[in-house]
Task: structure prediction
Amino acid sequence: MIVRTLDDARRSERCVATRNWESVRLLLNGDRMGFSFHITTIYAGSETPIWYKNHLEAVYCMAGEGEVEVLADGERSRTYVIRPGTLYALNAHDRHKLRATSDLTLACVFNPALHGKEVHDASGAYPLDING
Ligand code: 9YT
Result:
């Protein structure tokens, strides 16, 4: 069994921060669960373009408020409000923009699992394999 706390993980290498967000990666590829599990804070006022070409992600909002705009080529974009209790799943590797009105606290699951150090590349993706 694996037992970890958010506080301990936040003080460890499992915490990765960028200009727009901080993510505490509680379960990673090395844990051999088949997915990774993160508690992510998206900072108030930020807008993050994301396009997970190599991963599927499910996101559940626990606190805060914001919106996700799904950008489909050749189609009109759609915008969904995110508030506590909302789940969105990027089941089609959907290109999207994530905006936070207030700090958003999100539980995120990635398949395949992240290795640990990933940050978005110029297109908004994470690479499939990195050392970390
Ligand atoms: C919702 C989302 O994808 N935010 C970016 C960070 C990501 N959750 C991560 O790497 O943990």
Observations:
- Residues 21, 23, 38, 40, 50, 57, 59, 98, 106, 108 surround 9YT (CB under 6 Å).
- The chain has a mean pLDDT of 94.
- The helical segments are 6-10.
